[in-house]
Amino acid sequence: MSDSTGTEPAGTEPTALVEPGTSRTEGRTHTLHFTIALPHPVEQVWAAVATAEGLPGWLAAADVLEPRLGGTVTLRWLTNGEVHTGHVTAWDGERVAEYTLEGLHGRMRFHLEPTARDATTLRFTNEFDGDDELRLDRLAGWHDHFEHLVAALDGHPTDERTWAAWTPDRWLLLRGRYAAVAE
Predict the structure, then answer these.
(1) What is the pLDDT of residues 101-144, one digit of tens each?
(2) What is the DSSP letter of 183?
(3) d(CA 18, CA 36)
(4) Alpha-helical regions (H) of 66-153
């Protein structure tokens, strides 16, 4: 088992609320962790991570999202149109939403903890199988998406036109930094 910790990319302005993600690897199974303190009430964060209306503003379009244990979920990435299907594998209203998608995305768990009247800690876990390159891709990808989540919660969701114009520049900077820490 190995343990890697990421840091904020050099040469970029850090997003104060998005701390670097960490990962743990056992064999070919990687588990990524992000903990994000958000100055927003749990209801607002829940709407962003667990509703078909909230997900497109920072992650992907939820073409199907049945909000219940065992429900179907279909996410369509707005940057490239890729579609990934799966099931809701944990659901505890305004507390835990977990989606397990077929293929490379694996299990994604959003655990919300109210820390004050208008503050929430988001504990995120992503477990998937793959090589170390995929681990680095995912660390950078989730970090990038969580920066979009912060913007969405602050009233600036990423719309379809902006997703269509997305470039990998920020992702590449983040990935390079995570890769440098791993060396």
Answers:
(1) 998 899 999 999 999 989 999 999 999 999 999 999 999 999 99
(2) -
(3) 6
(4) 132-153
- Residue 22, C-beta contacts closer than 8 angstroms, at least 6 positions apart: 3, 4, 5, 6, 32, 33, 34
Find out whether 102 and 85 touch, Cβ atoms under 8 Å: yes
Given a contact cutoff of 8 angstroms between Cβ atoms, the answer to whether 85 and 73 are in contact is: yes
Ramachandran angles phi, psi of 148, nearest 5° = -65, -35
Residues ≥6 apart with Cβ < 8 Å to 77: 60, 83, 84
Dist CA 74 CA 52 (whole Å):
10
Tokens at residue 30, please? 């990687």
What domains appear along the chain, each with residue ranges and CATH number? 2-182 (3.30.530.20)
pTM above 0.85, yes or no: yes
Element (H, E) at 178: helix 169-182
Q: How far apart are CA 49 and CA 92, in angstroms?
A: 13
